[in-house]
Amino acid sequence: MAEPRTIDIKDQPGFGTIAVICVCVLYIPVLILMIFSLNSGSLVTHWEGVTLGWYGSAFLNEEFHHAARNTMIISVTATIVSTICATLAAIGMTRVKPWRGLAAAFMIINLPLMVPEIITAVATLSFFALIAGAFGLNFGIGNLIFAHIVFCIPFAYMPIRARLEDMDLTLEYAAADLYATPWNTFRRITLPLLVPGIMSGAALAFIVSFDDFTITQLVAGPGQTTLPLYIWNQIRRPMTPEINAISTILLLVSILFVSISFLIARRRAK
Amino acid sequence: MSKAASFEAQAVKTGARRNRLLSLPALIIIGIFGVLPLVIICVYSFLAAAPYGGVQWQFSTDAYLNFLFQRDIFDDTLQFTPDFLIIYLRSFLFAVVTTVICLLLGFPTAYFMATRTPAQRNWWVLLITIPFWSNLLVRTLAIMFIIRDEGLINDALMALGVIDKPITMLYTNFAIQLGLLYAFLPFMVLPLYSSLEKLDFRLVEAAYDLYATRRQVLWRVIIPLSKPGIIAGCLLVFIPALGAYVTPLILGGGIHLMIGDLIAQQFGSGRNWPLGCAQALILMAAVLVALFFYVRNTSGKMQHG
What we know:
The complex is a heterodimer of chains A (270) and B (305).
Chain A: H1 15-36, H2 53-59, H3 62-94, H4 102-114, H5 117-135, H6 141-166, H7 170-177, H8 182-211, H9 214-219, H10 227-235, H11 241-269
Chain B: H1 2-19, H2 24-44, E1 47-49, E2 55-59, H3 62-68, E3 69-71, E4 78-80, H4 83-114, H5 118-133, H6 136-147, H7 152-159, H8 173-196, H9 201-209, H10 214-225, H11 227-242, H12 246-251, H13 259-267, H14 273-304
Antiparallel strand pairs in B: 1-2, 3-4
């Protein structure tokens, strides 16, 4: 305290500039894409004026409807199933005495995060081809739903487990002390406290399923076009700003769900 | 402590042992639709290719031999062909460059974020989180619009009179490298941030008190302390970058292959599933080596710390 400190110990010169550049680099391409979705000309990159027409034509587009419907069926089902499985698994792996195989179970749950997506994609494709060949079984769009549930589980699992681990156990002990049955304790105490974790996990599961391209593209059968696949099919044709409009819609859905998940998590922190 | 232990004992008595069964649905689903398919591609990689895709149930090591050699049609001898090996080395190089540049940009960014006030930090984290979760295909498409021949960069340079015909950037190695950097930068920043956020700045202050310069503090205190975050971030970038599929597909135009689209190609136009499975397993082996390195490093850290 003898001499006043002249430097901010946390400061490293130039780091702030790099941070600002990083954020700009991450957002500028996406913003340009969004702005060009409002372009009234029919060329993708030459600006002619503002219109919402491309959103209109997207909404009237039959193929877009079909893709949007498929996407919603797959994502909503995958989100519900994976969130339920992840919630049960998180409880089964935190509210128990350590059991033999716990480490292995943890590894299996997180496996989809460690295997590169392209490997998961070709493995799933081979698997469904095998059961189709050997048993004549084809679940149609169910193939995609099963594939999505697998990689959604770890994303839903992470925030739910984090919430369970942060939770103060006193309330649960108090309930048990007051002769609540384990089920009542769970339903009245644990579950309500767990809801933010579950919602945050479900939001993340929804986004990863909604956005998935690699696995969907390889596993999808004829007619099982999802929104990312629809965009991919459009890229290979002469493009109109309609593709920008559809891309923007996809981005806005992601931004919405990330923000929901983020806000829930932030409220938890307060 | 003993009180908690007795509660725990009671909880065990009242059915916590049954709770472990709750993990079964998730484990069964991932077991059947996640683990079993991996076993199947291991088996497939040792089978012969069927002429129109799929496999023939006949043992063969051709897939692995084909990775390095090509069987001569006339005299059936094996000839060394480095094509696949070159693609693997190229992808490895792309992934390493991506990891290094992401680290150079991501570390200062994460550090800057971690030294803001808590309210500002929240906004910065949200700013980086949004691209992290945004559709990779759409983000890659955005890059494509900018670097096309009629894209924004070329339009701007031509309008300024710097160049008179467009510079070809799309469908080049440069495009793939740019796309990979753009795709994976947030994957580096977020783990680094969560590690730097926990940094004990009393150690930094102590270093300054001992007359360390700013640079010495950075290299000898901050960076060593954030090593777990650096390793985690590098893996999170390196592994998906090595197997990247979308980026080279769109920005490389199917000409400049990386491992990811090479594998996919065997299942599509290549019609050689066993070869695709073998290539996937060789990629998986590379990933396991990286993960092994990670586990060894982090567990060693715990022993020392």
